[in-house]
Amino acid sequence: MQRAILFLVMFVLAIPAQAQVCAVGRAPAAADGRVLGHLPYGDAPPDDLVPVPSPWAAGKGCVLRREVLPDLERLLTAAAADPAVGGRILALSCHRAILYQQSVFCRGDEAQKGAGDRAISVAPPGHSEHATGFALDFAFRPRVNGCPDVEACIAATPAFRWLAANAPRYGFEMSFPAGNRQGVKWEPWHWRWVGATGGAQGAQRARLLFARARRDFPADPAVPPDVVVIGHVDAPPVYLGAYPPPECRKGKCRMPRPARRR
Ligand SMILES: [Zn+2]
């Protein structure tokens, strides 16, 4: 009898915890909170987000945490003034609410088939750095050799080489370098802001959010780490109802324009 109970306990312990990633789909959650390789992140408080000025954005509706903008503008201004870039660097995709991430990750048949494969290049909802408002994807203009946005070929462009050499000085680091142990696809276009120093406004908040990622899966190139003692990190917040649902047409989704605040 005791052996039977022991066997049952071992069997239950061997079943991985599950996380709900889509309306119909669940995925195993690792002991460190990762789902399909991605760490958990909550939504940015809506009032902390501000639009990226249009000269610096490749599209509409790019919003980031207020604290990111001064460094972002300094970085992109320096890039625009340096002939080595051969053009301009722009913000392509910025804050993405959890609801929007869900619409991207779960759309079509992909929700049922191969969530693991999809998670190599797209984070499951609730597990994207974009939700924090501290991460963005960069685009390069003009395009070189027909290389489209968010493809690895951008790493061969002069603009990317300039970004890799200079972005850490402005507080940005590349979250998912080639061959990262996290198992996420190499994303040379995806960078998170943690402040050039821990004393920069907002840097402590960003560094707290990304503390586990920076410790276990370091960025490359990376902002040099300051010594930060972390006693406790709260669970990621979810602002239910704070963000309107995404507008989807023919399988493509986009965030609706934020309502003007009074
Ligand atoms: Zn990204």
User: Which small-molecule species are bound to the chains here?
Assistant: zinc ion
Number of E-type strands:
10
SS-derived structural category: alpha+beta
The unreliable regions are 8-15
Strand content: 15-25%
Q: Within the largest sheet, what's the order of strands?
A: 5-6-8-7
What is the first-to-last residue Cα distance?
68 Å
What is the third-level CATH name, the topology of the domain at 49-99 and 130-216? Muramoyl-pentapeptide Carboxypeptidase, domain 2
Portion of residues within helices: 10-25%
Q: What general outline do the C-alpha atoms trace?
A: globular
Oligomer: single chain
Enumerate how many helices there are, as a single number. 7
**How large is the radius of gyration?**
20 Å
CATH domain class name of the domain at 49-99 and 130-216: Alpha Beta
Helix-strand string: HEEEEHEHHEHEEHHEE
Question: What CATH architecture of the domain at 49-99 and 130-216 would you give?
Answer: 2-Layer Sandwich
Question: Average pLDDT, to the nearest integer?
Answer: 85
Q: Tell me the major beta sheet.
A: 4 strands, antiparallel
